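Input.
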Amino acid sequence: MVKKNEMNARILVVDDEADSRLLLRMMLVHAGYDVTLAADGEEALESLAETSPDLLLSDVMMAGLDGLALLWRVRTDPKTRTLPVILLTAKSATDEVAEGLRLGADDYLTKPFRIEELLVRVRAKITRPPVPDT
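Output.
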C-alpha cells in the first residue's frame, strides 16, 4: 500500500536495456509511482533538466554515460545534489559497491533483486526527511 506522502512520487528510471526499463516501470507504476524512463545517462540528464523527480533509479553499466558518471553529475549539480539515488547493477564486488556509495549513491542493489526489496528501498528514500542542501 502506498502511503499518502508517497502519492504521485516521481521516479526517473535509467537503464540501457529496454526490457529492464519496462519491467521496472511496470513494478513501480503498479506500486503507485509516476515513472519516467531514460535509456542512458545523457537522456537522464536531459530529463532531469526538464523535470524534478523524487528519486533516480539507475543501472550502473551502460554505454556512453554510465551510472557512476551520471551519479557524479547529479551530485555536482546544485539543482540535483540532494536527489535520492539508488544504483542497480549486476556488479556485486565490494569495491564496485563501495565506489558507487563513495560517489554519493544513497543505496545500491545488485541484480537480480527481489521486487519487495526494491520497493521497500524506494519507499525509504522517498519518505525520508530531505537532505540539507549545504
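Residues 4-127 form a domain with the Rossmann fold fold (CATH 3.40.50.2300).
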